[in-house]
């Protein structure tokens, strides 16, 4: 039959559109259109993501503070304890010769 593998059947009605990689411009308009559009788009989405973010941050800091308080020792539990390492006694006063 003389046909190569991949060309054994001809299917009608399917169109293939391809663009050469040499004709693509991946960064076309990034500096002129992309960066100036960044600020308005960010400000437009701010009302959607900022309240949950702020609420989550408040919860995180509140729970972190509660955790620190719960891990703290109660000073009243140690009122009757004696210091095992008392400070050394003060040195004797210097002797002066008269």
Structural overview:
- With 98 residues, the chain is mainly α.
- It has a domain at 47-72.
- Helices cover 43% and strands 0% of the residues.
- It has one helix and no strands.
- The longest helix is centred in the middle third of the chain and has 42 residues, at 30-71.
- The protein is elongated, with a radius of gyration of 39 Å.
- Belongs to the UQCRQ/QCR8 family.
- It is found in: Mitochondrion inner membrane.
- One of its GO terms (cellular component) is mitochondrial inner membrane.
- It is a single-pass membrane protein.
End-to-end Cα distance, whole Å, is 131 Å
Beta strand count: 0
Q: Which structural category fits the helices and strands?
A: mainly alpha
pLDDT average, as an integer? 87
- Helix coverage percent of residues? 40-55%
β-strand percent reads: under 5%
Overall outline: elongated
What are the low-pLDDT stretches, counting only 5+ consecutive residues below 50? none
The rounded Rg comes to: 39 Å
What is the strand and helix layout of this fold?
Layout: H1 30-71
Brief sketch in words of this structure:
The protein is mainly alpha-helical and 98 residues long. Helices cover 43% and strands 0% of the residues.
